[in-house]
Write a structure and sequence with these properties.
single chain, alpha/beta, globular, Rossmann fold, two-stranded antiparallel ribbon, about 375 residues, binds zinc ion, binds Fe4 H S5, six-stranded mixed β-sheet
Length: about 375
């Protein structure tokens, strides 16, 4: 198996490209694919500040690493969810990575700041853990981005994630979600722009990328992910991909090229007018935003803070607002995206053990 570029021994084959790559050219391919996605969808410019949502998993660490290597200004935000050992471990990987790169990692703790954790809070609020978790993450990532004056929030959603979300949305004909399933969501009403620079790269490539770059990441899945429909959709697509290389890519990019636009008018019409949440001042389509309602039902509390300053941040000139992460900011509309690391490792194409103790380039040899 030889590298397509230099004919030296290859470490990975990528069937949808019908090619093998050595370490050097595989890393270059990953960077090139991210550059291509950034250019194609006008995701970010070098003078903009980016906050990457870091979970400690392979995708979020890889996107952070690639954006840094490409010269973008990127800090990380890690959200402590209070999911026992899983949270402790994932925080450790996020910190270790930040330290190794001399990069800035901002940490926000849901239990410490808002008085609830995901397992107990979701039970008390009678919500599925991933739904309470997703809502909290979106709210707090937006809040942190605005408070820290970042232009863009980046997430590690990869091609497998996006194809699986698309599959679920098509299966249930969630046309409003289909209209918003894009690699870039523009900034609106104070929400920062959201970008997914890994849409041209698969889950297996991201695992291989971390192995080759020596980035340690949490391999275990979140214990709350069990029974998540997203994992089932990924498995279904993996089965199709196994006999039809490139199927995920053509499903997702075919949708973007030929169908996505048809659903956008409906999605835009569905966007309710936003007014400030009476609890936290964040823009919301209801009197009290979904996050504040969650905090109350989960038995938590909102942090102390000056409500007027938060309102100014949204509806006036917010340059004077200091980046205080305890303020509550906007509640985004429901976002159909599950988190990128849900179902990590479900790709059967990774036929090797990628556990931290076994990670050498040889391990990703197909
Ligand atoms: S962390 Fe949160 Fe995920 Fe765990 S509770 Fe669900 S959404 S599965 S990446
Ligand atoms: Zn090569
Ligand atoms: Zn609120």
């Amino acid at each position: 198996m030889k590298c397509r570029v230099c004919r030296e021994p290859a470490i990975i084959d990528i069937r949808r490209h019908n090619a093998n790559f050595c370490e050097e050219h595989f890393l270059r391919l990953c960077r090139d694919q991210v550059t291509k996605a950034i250019d194609a969808f006008s995701m970010i410019t070098p003078d903009e500040r980016c906050l990457v949502a870091v979970s400690g998993g392979k995708d979020s660490l890889a996107v952070w690493d690639i954006l840094l290597d490409l010269g973008y200004q990127v800090d990380g935000l890690y959200l402590g969810l209070g999911i026992g050992d899983y949270s402790d471990e994932s925080a450790r990987y996020a910190r270790e990575y930040a330290e190794s790169r001399g990069a800035t990692l901002i940490e926000v703790s849901l239990p410490r700041t808002y008085g609830f954790d995901i397992p107990n809070g979701s039970r008390a609020a009678k919500r599925k853990p991933c739904s309470a978790c997703g809502l909290s993450k979106r709210h707090l990532f937006d809040q942190a981005a605005i408070a820290g004056r970042y232009d863009v929030v980046a997430t590690g959603h990869n091609l497998d994630d996006e194809a699986a979300v698309l599959f679920g949305n098509v299966l249930h004909w969630q046309t409003d979600y289909l209209g918003r399933q894009l690699p870039v969501l523009p900034a609106r009403d104070g929400f920062p722009r959201k970008i997914k620079p890994l849409v041209r790269l698969g889950e297996r490539e991201m695992a291989a990328y971390c192995v080759v770059k020596g980035i340690d990441y949490i391999v275990d899945e979140c214990p709350m992910a069990k029974g998540n429909k997203h994992i089932g959709y990924k498995e279904a697509l993996n089965a199709i991909e196994a006999t039809s290389a490139g199927a995920k890519h053509s499903f997702y990019f075919g949708f973007l090229d030929r169908a996505s636009e048809r659903f956008q008018a409906e999605a835009e019409a569905d966007q309710a007018e936003l007014t400030p949440c009476i609890e936290c001042g964040s823009p919301t389509s209801t009197e009290v935003c979904a996050f504040c309602r969650l905090v109350t039902r989960a038995g938590g509390h909102l942090p102390e803070g000056d409500h007027d300053i938060r309102l100014d941040a949204w509806f006036g000139d917010h340059r004077h607002v200091e980046p205080v992460l305890d303020d509550a900011y906007p509640d985004p509309d429901p976002d159909p995206d599950p988190d990128p690391d849900v179902g990590a490792g479900a790709d059967d194409a990774i036929a090797v053990d990628l556990s931290p103790t076994r990670r050498t380039p040889k391990d990703v040899r197909a």
